[in-house]
Amino acid sequence: MLDCGYCSRIRPRIAEMLTAGKDDQSIIDVFVKEEGKEALAVPPTEGFSLFAWWMPFVALGTGFAGVWLVLRRFLRPAPASTTPEIDAAMLGRYQDEIEKDLSKLE
């Protein structure tokens, strides 16, 4: 951002260091020494800062794995139902009783 508060106070210092003949890395080292690693736009790929690089990928992987598990669970085909065999004689007896009861209603 061109007009942020941090840039407006740092640019003159950077310009002074450049006119004094310092190279880019030495200027970066001065700011890191004064303000710590927070002065860097990108965290270094070492130590605990490596966690900042890997965490987005770990979070995405975990999220995709969770969605896959949920979808696998709910989109699984239903198990084959194990309905018992129906006795034809018993079915006929119940149909006869239903017919008798329906005839009484008429």
Written overview of the protein:
- The chain is an all-alpha fold and 106 residues long.
- It has a domain at 1-47.
- 66% of the residues lie in helices and 0% in strands.
- It contains 4 helices and no strands.
- The protein has helices spanning 5-19, 24-35, 50-74, 88-105.
- The mean pLDDT is 85.
What is the H/E order? HHHH
Beta fraction of the residues? Answer: under 5%
Radius of gyration: 38 Å
Mean pLDDT across every amino acid position: 85
Count of strand segments: 0
In one word, what is the shape? rod-shaped
Describe the sheet with the most strands.
none
Distance between the termini: 87 Å
Q: Helical residue percent?
A: 55-70%
Structural class: mainly alpha
Enumerate how many helices there are, as a single number: 4
Instruction: Give the uncertain stretches in residue-range form.
Output: none
Key descriptive features of the protein:
mainly alpha, 4 helices, 106 residues
SSE order and pairing:
Layout: H1 5-19, H2 24-35, H3 50-74, H4 88-105
Task: Kindly summarize this structure in a few lines.
The chain has 4 helices and no strands. It is mostly helical and 106 residues long.
